[in-house]
Design goal:
Elements (H helix, E strand, L loop, with lengths): L3 H17 L19 E3 L4 E12 L6 H14 L11 E2 L5 E10 L12 E5 L6 E8 H13 L1 E2 L4 E4 L1 E5 L5 E7 L7 H13 L4 E7 L12 H7 L9 H13 L3 E8 L14 E2 L24 E2 L4 H17 L4 E5 L5 H5 L2 H8 L4 H18 L3 E5 L1 H4 L15 E5 L4 H9 L3 E4 L2 H4 L36 H6 L8 H4 L2 E8 L9 H5 L2 H10 L11 H17 L10 H5 L11
Parallel strand pairs: 2-3, 2-4, 4-6, 10-11, 10-19, 11-12, 12-15, 15-16, 16-17, 17-18, 18-19
Antiparallel strand pairs: 1-9, 2-8, 5-6, 5-9, 7-8, 13-14
Helix pairs in contact: 2-3, 4-6, 7-10
Length: 579
Amino acid sequence: MFSSSFFLFTLSILVVLFFSTSAISLTAQSPINVWPKPRKFSWPQPQTILLSPNFTVSSPHHGYLTPAVNRYLRQVLTEHHRPLITPAVNLTPAPPLQILTISVADLSAPLHHGVNESYTLVIPTVGDGTATMTAETAWGAMRGLETFSQLVWGDPSRVAAGVYILDFPIFEHRGVMLDTSRNFYGVEDILRTIGAMSANKLNVFHWHITDSQSFPLVLPSEPDLAGKGSYGSEMQYSPEDVRRVVEFGLEHGVRVLPEVDMPGHTGSWAEAYPEIMTCANMFWWPAGSEWADRLASEPGTGHLNPLNPRTYQVVKNVIHDIATMFPEPFYHAGADEIIPGCWKSDPSIQTFLENNGTLSQLLQIFVNSTFPYIVSLDRSVVYWEDVLLDANIKVNPSILPPENTILQTWNTGPTNTKKIVASGYRAIVSSADFYYLDCGHGGFVGNDSLYDQPPGSDLGNGGSWCGPFKTWQTIYNYDITYGLSKEEAKLVLGGEVALWSEQADPTVLDSRIWPRASAMAESLWSGNRDETGIKRFAEATDRLNEWRHRMVARGVGAEPIQPLWCIRNPGFCNTVNPL
């Protein structure tokens, strides 16, 4: 342990070192790279030293940092990474690196939003064979360990020497959302995803656990929801599974943010509690009706009935169990895509509307009956933007105080982000135009005449409502505070890429997420521009190729972004000849 003032003093010394040395330009290619690129990276005379076969890491004991240290120690001693292009850097005759010493200022800081993730790393060229890392918290030390691991390669292992790194993220919320309702993912798939997130310095796994299609989460107070609403006993998450996921997340510096969407997207509840549902198990788009009169936006109908007192008995049990199983201070309550036709199909709601009630009032009844309870459990409530921005059904902002409410945006790109922060709310950005990883694979509904068109017809986005496919370049180049004032930008907590699972399951999980989520990871960690303010996606290509290669070697099935030929012929696959 050491004081925060000492930590800040160390940071200031490293800043001086960075600006007083002939540091490698952030726009230039280094012989070896770290993904995401650190904020400050100085390697004035690129060279390497051997990593001792007896290399070790010294760090203070911490319930989650200690397992991370052990994990990274095994990795750097056994990985023997072989870069796609052998780094052009000399191996010096200096003694091998024997030890990495880690100092942490605050070992008690919990893994909550806003925790300090900064670290410094110094690997000398000469000396007593000691590298040093300083971090304000255990979570910052984990980020530094990942950076250190990427600076080691070869057989025998060698490590970059003469390196000075000062690193910290731009945005505090950097996440991946995974839908495990429409198709089921085993615990091992989730753990592999969290591990890959940690390697990319992403820190929030947003677990969209349930939806209309299935309810896979076993809740102690409401076991019938999964017992009757899941795809089967082999496709359920037990409390022990949840505990394992949460603990694995903590050991990797990744928060697990649960979402049980309601009052819409709840069709799977109907198997256990049909009496609290509206329009459950009905055909989603009645024949001959207009789109505005549909019962759901995709197959799988059902909303909770806000007028039934029994609804809240079940809902509060669900909320209590979720808050007990997940220690995360953010609670995602959903509240998106309330479909008018579904509520209008219910007789009690028809009577309510005939007595001059409105659908927005109906949603407000539900939110007023659940929001205070969630807050009473010491949680900040995250909703999808619809709860305030939907064109037809939304609540009055007065019932959602900004100090307890966060809105996640998914429509109309920067426009809705602007609306959210201009109203004083904090925002998490998941704009479908940029961050939806499922887009571009066509539609999933059957017997769709859209696909039976004469040759030469304009097929639009090929049946995908959010097409085209979001390339890694599209994701990398998105500025999530575009069009915002400095004060408004401060309300943007960060962003999440999202994988909805209508057309995804474990067989494609890795390739749908990676390395496109890596693109967002760097953009949110250190930005997508160089020190001159120019977008750096061009130079990022070679680095992302190498990082994807390393992820694959680590067991993550990330898809390729270029042919190997491009990597072995630098510059020849560019659009424009730079010479």
